Hints:
By secondary structure, the chain is an all-alpha fold.
Amino acid sequence: METAKARTLFRLTVLATFFALMVIGKGAYTRLTDAGLGCPDWPGCYGFLTVPSGENIDVAEQAFPDTPVEAFKAWVEMIHRYMATLLGVLIIAIMVLGLRWAPKGDSSGWPKKHLYFLLALVCLQGAFGAWTVTLKLLPKIVTLHLIGGFSVLTTLSLLAVRFRRWRPEATLSGEQSRSLRGLIPLGWLALVVLCVQIFLGGWTSTNYAALACPDLPKCQGQWLPPTDFKTGFDLIQDVGPNYLGGQLDNDARVAIHLTHRIGAIVATLVIGALAIGLMRRGRGSVYGRAGGYLMLTLWVQVGLGLSNILYQLPLSVATAHNVVAAILLQVLVIGLLALRRTAKVEVLQKGWAAA
């Protein structure tokens, strides 16, 4: 599969991966600036293809009397939509080329099913984007939209790996290889824990609970403040006309925030243990470096999370917290893939087969 066409698809997929990361960052910025309903309709903006201006503002406000035009928020939302649309077009182009350039005859190594899955995921993500607006920031939809973005990014990362012949350094001894494979259960646990934590982060953000505990290490000056977990994690809650600014009381938001904090501690311990295991058992190889990257990304993410609380959710820090969470997921997923493909020295020396 290491052909000129495969290399072209690899480059396009890497481009799409980085662009998807930008879209995730722009989506976080849109949410954090309360611009999710900057345009109250979809796919246009107040009935126009772009943000209304001049005399069109009066027309727009007559059509949507409950949502006066705020040009800044409207442009923030529309730029996010334009970027997401461009990403979708790029992914469709990758799929069309990937299917057209599939090898004739035995194409078992060519990721056809992966391409179809990616297209279906992108379509679903587009639907979540529409429902985010039409359902007026319904928390479970907004959270699913965030998870969908992370899923598209991860699927693209794995597709890039599959379009490239990946040959880690064949410098492992048989004992070292077996030792690394012993980290696979911990890797799966780390992935599950991180996915749960990403959900909790999305739920915290969409329910406007990021500042429910403005202090550290206590919460509102208490070790065990009043909480309402039942309301905080009610997935069928009634959101009223819209959910901009949130509607939960303080106890429910505290419950969400504390759960996210606990999740952060668990994720740090589990992912940190995996990173240390990779660095120790894979010393001198690509696995050791992967462990180092994982540890570095983890601590950057922890630092951003603490800064969000200490500095009261600065926009740049909060946006970076979302982006680094997405990067951490990619490092972990590709690291776990490498562990699963760890083989005996004899196999490694022959090079890695196409994905």
